[in-house]
Design goal:
118 residues, 6 helices, single chain, alpha+beta, three-stranded antiparallel β-sheet
Length: 118
Protein backbone atom coordinates (compact mmCIF):
# COMPACT_ATOMS: atom_id res chain seq x y z
CA UNK A 1 0.00 0.00 0.00
CA UNK A 2 1.35 3.43 -0.91
CA UNK A 3 0.46 6.89 0.31
CA UNK A 4 -0.58 9.43 -2.27
CA UNK A 5 0.97 12.78 -1.30
CA UNK A 6 -0.04 14.90 -4.30
CA UNK A 7 -3.53 15.54 -5.63
CA UNK A 8 -4.55 17.26 -8.86
CA UNK A 9 -7.37 19.80 -8.77
CA UNK A 10 -9.34 22.05 -11.11
CA UNK A 11 -10.38 25.47 -9.88
CA UNK A 12 -14.02 26.47 -10.50
CA UNK A 13 -13.12 29.80 -12.15
CA UNK A 14 -9.33 29.90 -12.43
CA UNK A 15 -6.44 32.13 -11.50
CA UNK A 16 -5.91 35.02 -13.93
CA UNK A 17 -2.23 35.98 -14.17
CA UNK A 18 -0.76 39.38 -15.09
CA UNK A 19 -0.96 38.55 -18.81
CA UNK A 20 -4.64 37.59 -18.58
CA UNK A 21 -4.02 33.84 -18.90
CA UNK A 22 -6.46 31.69 -16.92
CA UNK A 23 -4.96 28.78 -14.95
CA UNK A 24 -7.42 26.18 -13.62
CA UNK A 25 -5.41 22.96 -13.30
CA UNK A 26 -3.11 22.50 -10.34
CA UNK A 27 -1.58 20.15 -7.81
CA UNK A 28 -1.69 20.27 -4.03
CA UNK A 29 0.53 18.17 -1.79
CA UNK A 30 -0.25 16.94 1.68
CA UNK A 31 0.65 19.45 4.38
CA UNK A 32 3.32 18.85 6.96
CA UNK A 33 3.29 20.05 10.55
CA UNK A 34 5.84 22.66 9.52
CA UNK A 35 3.44 23.99 6.84
CA UNK A 36 0.91 24.75 9.55
CA UNK A 37 3.31 25.96 12.26
CA UNK A 38 5.73 28.13 10.26
CA UNK A 39 3.12 30.73 9.21
CA UNK A 40 2.41 31.53 12.87
CA UNK A 41 5.79 33.33 12.98
CA UNK A 42 4.89 35.57 10.04
CA UNK A 43 4.10 39.19 11.01
CA UNK A 44 1.17 39.24 8.56
CA UNK A 45 -0.47 36.49 10.64
CA UNK A 46 0.16 38.40 13.85
CA UNK A 47 -1.78 41.31 12.31
CA UNK A 48 -4.51 39.06 10.88
CA UNK A 49 -4.82 35.38 11.88
CA UNK A 50 -6.79 34.57 8.73
CA UNK A 51 -3.65 35.25 6.68
CA UNK A 52 -2.21 31.94 7.90
CA UNK A 53 -4.48 30.13 5.44
CA UNK A 54 -3.06 32.13 2.54
CA UNK A 55 0.49 31.24 3.57
CA UNK A 56 -0.34 27.56 4.04
CA UNK A 57 -2.02 27.33 0.63
CA UNK A 58 0.95 29.04 -1.02
CA UNK A 59 3.19 26.37 0.53
CA UNK A 60 1.12 23.31 -0.42
CA UNK A 61 -0.11 24.26 -3.91
CA UNK A 62 2.85 23.06 -5.94
CA UNK A 63 1.49 23.79 -9.41
CA UNK A 64 -1.12 26.11 -10.86
CA UNK A 65 -1.26 25.85 -14.62
CA UNK A 66 1.85 27.35 -16.16
CA UNK A 67 1.93 30.28 -13.74
CA UNK A 68 5.22 29.24 -12.16
CA UNK A 69 5.82 29.27 -8.43
CA UNK A 70 2.69 29.77 -6.32
CA UNK A 71 3.17 32.60 -3.83
CA UNK A 72 1.04 34.38 -1.26
CA UNK A 73 0.37 37.03 -3.92
CA UNK A 74 -1.00 34.30 -6.21
CA UNK A 75 -3.35 33.05 -3.48
CA UNK A 76 -4.40 36.63 -2.60
CA UNK A 77 -5.44 37.19 -6.21
CA UNK A 78 -7.68 34.11 -6.47
CA UNK A 79 -11.39 34.63 -6.90
CA UNK A 80 -13.24 34.02 -3.62
CA UNK A 81 -14.86 30.83 -4.98
CA UNK A 82 -11.45 29.42 -5.96
CA UNK A 83 -9.96 30.35 -2.58
CA UNK A 84 -12.83 28.57 -0.83
CA UNK A 85 -12.42 25.58 -3.14
CA UNK A 86 -8.72 25.27 -2.22
CA UNK A 87 -9.55 25.53 1.50
CA UNK A 88 -12.08 22.71 1.14
CA UNK A 89 -9.68 20.68 -1.03
CA UNK A 90 -6.99 21.10 1.65
CA UNK A 91 -9.35 19.83 4.35
CA UNK A 92 -10.43 16.83 2.26
CA UNK A 93 -6.92 15.62 1.37
CA UNK A 94 -5.38 16.30 4.78
CA UNK A 95 -8.17 15.49 7.23
CA UNK A 96 -10.92 13.75 5.28
CA UNK A 97 -11.37 10.99 2.75
CA UNK A 98 -9.60 11.85 -0.52
CA UNK A 99 -11.37 8.96 -2.26
CA UNK A 100 -14.39 11.27 -2.72
CA UNK A 101 -12.33 13.17 -5.30
CA UNK A 102 -12.61 10.22 -7.69
CA UNK A 103 -16.36 10.67 -8.15
CA UNK A 104 -16.44 14.45 -8.40
CA UNK A 105 -16.54 16.62 -11.49
CA UNK A 106 -13.40 18.79 -11.69
CA UNK A 107 -14.02 22.19 -10.08
CA UNK A 108 -17.39 21.25 -8.61
CA UNK A 109 -18.16 22.23 -5.01
CA UNK A 110 -17.49 19.73 -2.27
CA UNK A 111 -20.39 18.20 -0.38
CA UNK A 112 -20.59 20.07 2.93
CA UNK A 113 -19.90 16.96 5.00
CA UNK A 114 -16.82 16.11 2.90
CA UNK A 115 -15.11 19.43 3.63
CA UNK A 116 -15.98 19.49 7.32
CA UNK A 117 -13.21 18.83 9.81
CA UNK A 118 -14.05 16.65 12.72
Amino acid sequence: MSLNTEYPFTLPKGYVDDEGVIHREGVMRLATARDEIEPLRDPRVKDNEAYATIIVLARVVTELGTSGRVTTRTVERLFASDYRYLQDFYRVINFGDPSILEGMEPGSPFPQEAAAVG
